Amino acid sequence: MRERRGVFHGIDWVMIVIYLLLVFMGWINIYAAVYDQDHASIFDLSQRYGKQLMWIVASLLLGFVIILIDPKFFNQFAFLIYGISLLTLLFVLGFGKEVAGSKSWFQIGSFAIQPAEFVKFSTALALAHYLGNLGIKVDNLKATFYSALIILTPAALILLQNDTGSALVYVAFIFVLYRQGLSGNIFIIGFVFAALAILSLLLESAQAKLIMLALIFLMLGVAYLAMKHNIKNLIKLIGIFIIISAYVFSVDFAFSKLQPHQQVRIKVLLNMKDDPRGAGYNVNQSKIAIGSGGITGKGFLKGTQTKFNFVPEQSTDFIFCTVGEEWGFLGTSTVVGLFVVLLLRIVYVAERQRSHFSKIYGYGVASILFFHFTINVGMVLGILPVIGIPLPFFSYGGSSLWAFTILLFIFIRQDAERMQLL
Amino acid sequence: MIMRRDTYADRKYIIYGFFIVVGILFLIRLAYLQLFNDSFKLAADNNTRRDITIYPPRGLVFDRNDELIVYNEAVFDLMVIPNQLKPMDTLAFCKIVGISYENFVKRIKKAKKYSWRKASFFEKQISKEQTAYIQEKLYNYPGFYVQPNTLRKYPHPIAAHILGYIGEVNQKNLEQDSYYSQGDYMGKSGLERFYEKDLRGNKGVQKLMVDVYNREKGPFHEGKYDVAAQKGKNLYLGLDWIIQEYGEKLMVNKKGAIVAIDPKTGEILAMVTSTNYDPNLLTGRVRSKNYRILLKDTLKPLLNRALISSYPPGSTFKLINALIGLQEGVLHNGSRYACHNGFSFRGLHVGCHSHRSPLNLEESIQHSCNAYYCEVYRSILGNKNYANSEEGFRKWREYVTKMGFGVKYGIDLPSEKRGNIPKPEYYDKYYGKGHWNAITTISLSIGQGEILATPLQMANQAAFIANRGYYIAPHLVRAIGRPDSLNPRFTEKHYVGVDEKYFDIIVEGMSKVVSNGTARLARIDSVEVCGKTGTAQNPHGENHSVFIAFAPRNNPKIAIAVFIENSGYGGTWAAPISSLMIEKYLKGYISPKRSWLEKRMLEGNLLNVKKKDK
Fold first, then answer.
1. Of A149, B261, B553, B565, which sees the most CB atoms within 10 A?
2. What confidence tier does A334 reach under pLDDT thresholds 50, 70, 90?
């Protein structure tokens, strides 16, 4: 009794409240997105909003159970959980059900579950376990290699399932590694290479690419003039130039290996292709839905774009545009605000942990949520390519809601224990 | 585990910064989309709004006695929206609609090719009765629905060429007039085409809210932005459907045309062309099939002979030469010319039938003497007032043109023809300048040779003689919109350049043609008919039978021209038919004394008379 009271006493209610708010708002907006006058009851279990309610209730139970579990369990069994989750990924590759081109679902009766969703928190656990318990800093090659191994193994398996969006999420762990000592240059290098990728896609012809490389060569030449004139620097710059050149010409090859719809989405985003009826359709309709909301929105259930199914995937990946249409700028800024506050709060809470495991896990939670939030909202607003990943707590879907709930509540549980620990 | 120095602790600020920056970027983007850009609001409206075109009923057509002769019948189009189709009993459906399975597959394929989401026509113009039957069963077949449309109907199957027909717009129409959109109907011939802008009215727009599947969700903004359809204007014709119908009956099994005009107003009372067809054949679903059949028919039922066929006017044209001669002062009633079975000059001979000789002007009309008009024509061209024959001819041609030959009147029907009155240049080319004269062009004196006139022009000739010197351009539509809003296009009197006084002699002659001349079969008790026969020689076989007339002599009510191809003397067929038309129009019935004649005219079959039988 005493211990239990202690547990609930230590819980961070800020995160809980934001979590509840987001889940509730998601449910309301799913109701609006799939609203159907023949099934107007928000509790109708034959409809998505009814089902989502069911999953919300299950999630709350799940969260409650996690709070009751001994926090040390997650640390001790981190690798075990990680291993099991990897096995399910392998299993789903063999026996999974294919939905929309991705073989990433288990079908149990009428129930479908997406294991990839659950690997996110197990990967966060494993990474926290590896880095935290040994107090490892990611400023050496060995730690970087093992961290990368932990992160990229599930990503590779998910990629094999043909679920590029979910695989990309693992990029998010860069934040964790950065916090643990990975050189900040990673962002600069990442930025440079992303820019180079975009440029080499935009400059379709080989001549244009050669001109670009010539310019880079000149810039490197100027850099050499500013540097110390020795062999070491010269070799360094030549090495950089060779890498860049190889990279620029391999982008096209990599791009051609993407699935056609992904190629088109990227081209649409880069304005290389104008296609409001085809690949650009979702985004265009989504922008229309959001833009037509104005300041205060059209009102609950009054969204014409939403109600009349102009935006595909509206209850799942494009749920944010329902908020935009029916609740306007006030609604969207509230949701964005809640997410940012939640993210800041997680990092703040992570920083107050005395256990490295808890802290690193907290960063993992923040990274995953941040990545989902950024990619999803960026996509809906038409500033990032269409990558089908859900908006955490908001989007329709049992697997993702449960997985995010588990992810967050393990952290809440760890945090509640911080006073007892040591 | 002990707290240790955390060398990378400051990095949390970078991460805070990341989160905040992304949040701010999103807020900026949201502000741009939601607060500072109105185009998305419009786009959302357009997305959810569908403009449903409301087709107004096309204007009705009435005859001069307010008899309805064209109206609209409600029909229905069966529409299909491919993506709403559900698995269904296709064969049963085919049976209901009355099409073959192959046809069904073809149509669905075509509809899918057009659009999965938008409705396209599956079957057009289904009758009310069949629609009731189909509609009852349609609930079994989601994706199909019926929408109302109209079809032109003709209670009296008459005047097909005048009324014309409507058909779907083609690419050219779409480019020329932005009013139309794909699938619209428009007048393709006849009055339907000429008065298209009056008849069509104005399409209305009903703005509906629809979802992405095109399902209707009620009016947009409570119908505030709807545009009501304006129905088409009615046409009130000068046509008298009774004599039009009668004329068509009389012309059965004959090739030719009848044009009857009210000389006072220029209103066309009847315009019959034969062979012809039932206008109901070219309406609705059967149109294209019937059109092909009619097009192939060797009797050319689609040709409006009254307006388009040009014939040599024959002896009716003698009146023209007489009027010119009188006006020019080279001819007087007392002028007598001898005729010895024709006109002979230096080896040239124009034959004539036997009659007493010499004749004065009146008698020359009465007996239609060829020699007399050769002399009249010669004196017109040889008039001392003009330098030479060519100048004389120019003057002659000026008169003829003024009298409505070789010109168009601008009648309110498409494809009017002007006929042909040769120009001096034509003869210059043929004979060489200065090498032709009245003798070389002598055929013109009796309405043969290069002269070609349409039946309309010949009827107009009867009209201006009836009016003693002027005509009003012949036209069909008396009033547009309301019976009293007269067609402003046709009010001007066209004077033909011959003084009224000269007409008395001509009219007297024409009266005698009927009372005691070449057209005695055209006599009607109690009505004084003035007419002139013509027997037009032509290269196509037997002579054409021609008659022009007006009646009554004083205060004429009807002027008429009848032209019957390859049927011989004007007095034999054209004159009796004219008189029957006149009698029917003026008295409303045919006197029993003449019923034998009526019977002979109705039953006469002249279609196979091709060869000249001497």
1. B261
2. very high
